[in-house]
Design goal:
3 strands, OB fold (Dihydrolipoamide Acetyltransferase, E2P), disulfide bond, Interleukin_8-like_sf, alpha+beta, Chemokine_b/g/d
Length: about 120
């Protein structure tokens, strides 16, 4: 009987001590993730926008938002419903398309590479 009481006492004390420690942050995602909780009312000039990500209300955060990254290393939350946001996204997407079109001729398929090797190794 005394052994059972000792075991219960140890279990109780262990439970109390473990509950005092904070829970691990890994269970709640990265600590540096911050959600947008409201939108900016001021449009950003396109020249200061460096990039963007989309925030979904179906994941961790409560609202859908576009998070713009500025050249000053700031994050600006905006609504997709705003006209200036849609215009900025369209402009960014067109820049990405132009960049990928410029790089496309440099890409080589395996067959093209084989042909290139074959034509450069022929002896006259």
């Amino acid at each position: 009987m005394r052994c059972v009481m000792s075991l219960l006492t140890i279990t109780l004390i262990s439970s109390i001590l473990l509950s005092l420690f904070p829970q691990t942050p890994a269970a709640y995602g990265p600590l540096n993730y911050a959600c947008c909780v409201k939108y900016t009312r001021n449009p950003l000039p396109f020249g200061v926008i460096k990039g963007f990500i989309e925030q979904s209300s179906r994941e961790v955060c409560r609202i859908d938002a576009i998070i713009f990254f500025t050249k000053n290393k700031k994050k600006v939350c905006a609504s997709v419903e705003d006209q200036w946001v849609r215009a900025a996204l369209a402009h960014l997407r067109s820049k990405i398309t132009k960049l990928t079109e410029k790089r496309a001729p440099r890409l080589t398929t395996a067959a093209g590479l084989k042909r290139m090797i074959h034509t450069t190794t022929k002896t006259p």
